[in-house]
Amino acid sequence: MRGLYLSEGAMLVQQAQLQVISNNLANLRTPGFKREQGVETSFAEWMIYEMRPQKDAERVGALHQVGSKAHNVATQETFTSFVQGPLEVTERHLDFALVGRGFFQVEGEEEVLYTRNGRFRLDVDGTLVTTEGYPVLGEGGPITVTTEEIYSHRDGSLYYIDDEGQYVDAGRLDIAAFGPDAQMEKVGYNYFTTEEAADGEEDYEVVSGFLEGSNANLPREMAKLMQVRRTYEAAQKIMITYDQLLDKVANDVGASV
């Protein structure tokens, strides 16, 4: 029976991997998307012992360790890769891309959310918002402007040119940068949250008229998809083989007793 449980566990792991890969493939064209990868692990290993007889026949034999084996496998966690995605030219004034560490901060329904997706728009009140309608935060709160033709300096400072050709300050994007070991949890649609504080370092550049593309790679995801398929099929064949053996034991061996 243990073979059935092991093959079942392997199939469940591959199903979880398939969901992760499918999500990566579905977001190949999503700005700022960060690919995910499932991390596999085994349950606590069982120690294997054997009973060895003692020289004295009256004494009970002793247990000796001969090795270990894993009980089963499972998906331990889903890891998010924050590798920089490629920059894509849009020439749209409300599109911004981040180069280096950092996240745009937006005002979520219950908390501040972080994203690498810099495709913004203006709502009816002139507030800079995300595609989902979350206000984009500047250093003094949500950013409000009177025109869509805004520009950005590399430090995230925004400005526009008025009718007289004068440069008008429009605030500064509040970019949050975290250390490489920061625990970021993905929530909702392409957003992240964390309980850790930003490290304050400005190791980034803001580029207007660009978007950061998804860091998911089609050839890599397709290769992983084929690997998952082969592993799943192998586990499935093992399960079928064990099922046939158990059926033969129950019908042939059991009938002869």
- Averaged pLDDT: 85
End-to-end separation: 21 Å
Overall structural class, as computed from helix and strand content, comes to alpha+beta
Strand order in space, largest sheet: 8-7-16
Count of separate structural domains: 2
Biggest sheet: strands, sense, closure? 3 strands, antiparallel
Helix/strand order: HEEEEEEEEEEEEEEEEEEEEH
> Strand tally, please?
20
Q: Helix count, per DSSP?
A: 2
> C-alpha Rg, in Å?
28 Å
Helix share, percent: 10-25%
Shape: elongated
Poorly predicted spans: none
Strand content: 25-35%
What this model shows, in words?
The protein has 257 residues and is of the alpha+beta class. The chain has two domains: 2-80 and 217-256, no CATH class; 87-212, no CATH class. 25% of the residues lie in helices and 35% in strands. The chain is built from two helices and 20 strands. It has a three-stranded antiparallel β-sheet, with no helix packed on it. A three-stranded antiparallel β-sheet has the order 13-14-15, with no helix packed on it. It has a two-stranded antiparallel sheet with strand order 1-4. Strand 13 and strand 14 (157-161) form a beta hairpin. The chain is elongated and about 100 Å long. The mean pLDDT is 85.
